[in-house]
Design a protein that fits this description.
With 220 residues, this protein is an all-alpha fold. It has helices spanning 2-5, 13-24, 33-54, 56-61, 65-93, 95-103, 106-120, 125-132, 136-146, 151-180, 184-205, 209-213. Helix 2 (13-24) packs antiparallel against helix 3 and helix 10 (151-180) packs antiparallel against helix 11 (184-205).
Length: 220
């Protein structure tokens, strides 16, 4: 399956598929957008590695690695920000309905309060961490909209989060493809590393630092 994907230049629709998946997974967190990004990067890197082993083909195609990886990072990061902003705007306009939905969950309510305090105090690093945590992106984007945080407060952190997540995912796929080629083993290892980063993000968000970073009226 990986080998059949071929190069990005031969399959431009892969960008549309990845972009759509990244946008939608803010509403449906079970969508494997991270897996798609890693698989695409692994396929591209593995294909170039295999072509390089042939000889002449490698000399022609080898230089395409960097532009293709950068294009994939840009695609995934842009789609991430667009999805965040769509969720943010929907939650802003339908604040009462989303607020009632969040209020039914103690965990979501606590996350919303921490987010509001963090953005107000310039501690929006939680937005970056949440981008790696399972369903964290959804909580952050919807919570920012419900709390009516300003675009100036939320957008820069959303952009940084999207870029960090996209760059990390693409780098995982690229390294795996260069190391083991376009195989399911390299993809599996890279996906595991992505999930490990998500677990680390959850751990960091639950550390005692939240008492210092998010203390104040919103956390009382």
């Amino acid at each position: 399956m990986l080998e059949s994907l071929g190069s990005f230049s031969d399959s431009p629709w892969i960008f549309a598929i990845i972009g759509l998946s990244v946008i939608l997974d803010v509403f449906v967190p079970i969508l494997p957008s991270g897996v798609l990004v890693i698989t695409a990067a692994t396929t591209a890197a593995g294909t170039q590695t295999a072509a390089g082993a042939v000889g002449v083909a490698g000399s022609v195609r080898g230089g395409a690695d960097v532009p293709e990886m950068l294009a994939l990072v840009l695609c995934a990061a842009t789609a991430s920000v667009l999805g965040d902003m769509v969720a943010y705007r929907l939650a802003w306009r339908g604040g009462d309905r989303f607020d009632r939905a969040i209020a039914r969950s103690r965990r979501l309510t606590a996350a919303q309060e921490r987010l509001g305090a963090a953005l107000t105090r310039g501690g929006g690093g939680i937005v970056v961490l949440a981008r790696f945590a399972p369903a964290g992106r959804s909580v952050v984007s919807l919570g920012a909209g419900v709390a009516h945080r300003t675009v100036r407060e939320f957008l820069p952190w959303s952009a940084l989060a999207g870029l960090a997540w996209a760059a990390y995912s693409v780098c995982l796929g690229y390294v795996g493809g260069q190391w083991l080629g376009a195989t399911w083993v390299s993809t599996a290892i890279s996906v595991f590393a992505l999930f490990a980063a998500g677990s680390a993000a959850v751990f960091l968000m639950r550390r005692p630092q939240r008492r210092a970073a998010f203390s104040g009226p919103a956390g009382d």
